[in-house]
Amino acid sequence: MATAGQGIAATALIAPDKPAMIFGDAVRTYGELDRRVNQIAHALRRAGIAEGDRVAVALFNSFEWFEVLNALGRLGALLVPVSFRGKGPEIAYMLGDSAAKLLVVDPRLADEVDRALAEQPLDDEHVWVTGAAAPWRGVSIEQRIAGEPATPPPGAHPGGGYNVLIYTSGTTGRPKGILRAPLPPDRVALQMLGVAQMWGFTADEVHLVPGPVYHTAPGSQGQMHLSLGATIVIMPRFDAEDFLRLVERHRVTNAQMVPAMFFRILALPAEVQRSHDLSSLRKVLHAAAPCPVAVKQRIMAVFPPGTVWEFYGASEGGGTRIGPDEWLANPGSVGRPWPGLAVKVLDDDGQPCAPNEIGTIYLMLSPGATFSYSGADDKTRAAFRDGFFTVGDMGYLDEDGYLFIADRKIDMIISGGANVYPAEVEQVLYRHPQVLDVAVIGVPDDEMGESVKAIVELRAGAPCSAQELIDFCRRDLAHYKCPKSVDFVTELPREPQGKVLKRALRERYWAGRSTRV
Questions:
Q1: What sign does the dihedral 325-329-330-336 (CA atoms) show?
Q2: How far is CA 380 from the centre of its chain?
Q3: How far apart are CA 404 and CA 366, in angstroms?
Q4: How far is CA 218 from CA 36, 53, 284, 424, in A?
Q5: Rounded (10°) CA dihedral 490, 511, 444, 318
Q6: Contact 81, 57 (CB under 8 A)
Q7: For residue range 164-179, what is the model confidence (pLDDT) as tens digits?
C-alpha cells in the first residue's frame, strides 16, 4: 500500500498497477504514468526546455495535462495553464507575457491557436499537439516521446509539486502572472504534503476532479492527490448527474467544487439525487465564489452528514477554512486561518478593524513563501502590507475570529467560480463602432453567483442591439467572460476626474442583498 507523500515515482515502484488517473473508461496506472512522465521530460529537454523555462498548456481536462505538469516539474520548468475557452488574442497575450518556449495544445483548439500564433509565433517544433491523429500543425506529442527512455532524465527532480505560472485577476484589463519564489523541490513537496495532512487526505483517497484543471484549485488538488499516491477521477466537464454517478461508481472519497455545481445538483429532481449512493464521500471542499446560505444548507442535506467544507484564499496563497459543524454555528462564514497562518482586516489607513467592522482582507503566506506579479512591480508592492497580502476583497472578523466576506474593492466578477476582469471586456466593447461609453459590472445570478452585465452608452444615431454586442464580444473573448445581458443608458455616471461610478451602477442591481459578491 502506498504511503502519503511519497510521490508518483515512489508509488510506481511499490504499487505500479494502482490506478493513478481515471478518465471515462480509460485508466492510467502509476507505472504507466511514471514512464510517460519520464518520456515527456526527455522529449521536452531535447526540445530545449530547461529549468525555469515556461511551457504553455492549452488542453481540456485529460491525462496529458497532468503528465506534462509532472514532466515539467522533473525538469524544474513551469507549466502555464491556458483556458481551453480562451480566444486567440487571450492566448497570444499569455504566450507573450509568460515568454513560453513551447505550447502543448489539443487539436480541437486549432482555430483559436492559429489566431494566437499569428500574433505570437512559435516554430512547429515547439507546438506539440495531443492525440493520435496527424496534427494540423506542429508535431504530435506521441511522435515526440516515441523511443524516449522511460527512466528519469539525468538530474531530474523527483518531486510532486504544483509547478505553475498562474494568471489571475487584474483591474487593468489583463490578468497578472503569479511568480512564486523558487523553493527546493523537497520543500515544495513538503508544503503540498502539509496541505494534504491539514485536510486529512491519505493515499487511500479517490479524488474526483469536476472542474477545469487550468484553474488553481482543481489542478492543484488533483496534483496533490497524485503526490500522495491516491487515485484521481477526471471529469471532461461538469455534469450534475454524471458527478453523482461517478461518486457511486468509483466510491469517490472527496471532491473539489464551486457553488455553481451545487446549483446544478440541486436542480436535479429529488428522485435523481436520491438514486445514487454517495456514502463513500468523506469531504466535499468548495471555494472560488461565495455560496448563498440557503444553497449550502440544501447541499449539506444531499451529501453525507459532516462532509461539506469550505475554504477561502487566492491563487497567490494563504487562506481560511471552515467545517460543517462550525459553519452551522456561524452561517455565512468562510472560517478561520489555516494552521500556522493568520488573517488581518485593515482599514484604509492600515489599522486593524474592530470585530464586525468591514475592511480589506489581508492573508498570510506560508513561512518562506512569497510571490510577485510578472512584469508588474507596482501591483506587487500594492498587494503587500507588513508581510501580508490582499487581492482586494472586503470583509470582517467576528469576535471569535471567523472571517466573513462582504464586498470587493476591485471590480473583478466571479461567475461560476471563474474570474472575469471587467476592463478586459470593456476594451473589447470599446472597439465596436456604435459604442461610445461602457461599464461592465457583476450582477446577481442565482446559479453563477454573479453574471456579467454591460451598461452601454451608444453613439448618437447609431442603433445597436444587445445581442449584437454580446456576439461581438464572443469573437475575441471566452463565452464566460462575455456579457450575459446588456442595458442601454443615455449617459454613464462618472466622477469629475472621469472614473465611472461603478458602485452606483451596482447598487441598482444589488439593492436588498446582504452581500455584494
A1: negative
A2: 20
A3: 21
A4: 22, 23, 13, 24
A5: 120
A6: yes
A7: 999 985 444 578 899 8
Residue 517: what pLDDT?
60
State the pLDDT at residue 409: 66
Q: Please give the pLDDT value at position 499.
A: 65
Cell 489555516: give the residue: 338
**Nearest of 227, 209, 280, 255 to residue 4 by alpha carbon:** 227
Residue count (the chain): 517
Give kind and range of the element (H or E) at residue 143: helix 141-145
* DSSP character string of 173-202: SS-EEEEEPP--HHHHHHHHHHHHHHHT--
Low-confidence ranges of the chain (pLDDT < 70): 1-6, 169-173, 185-186, 407-410, 495-499, 514-517
Q: Which strands make up the sheet holding 102-105, listed edge to edge?
A: 78-81, 54-58, 102-105, 127-129, 139-140
- CA distance to 121, 439, 462, 476, per residue, from 458 (Å): 37, 12, 7, 21
Within 8 A by CB and 6+ apart from 197, the residues are 4
CA 6/CA 14 separation, integer angstroms: 10
Task: Give the separation between CA 265 and CA 415, rounded to whole angstroms.
Answer: 17
In degrees rounded to 5, what are phi and psi of residue 224?
A: -60, -40
- Residues 452 and 18: their CA atoms lie apart, in Å, by 44
Q: pTM higher than 0.70, yes or no? A: yes
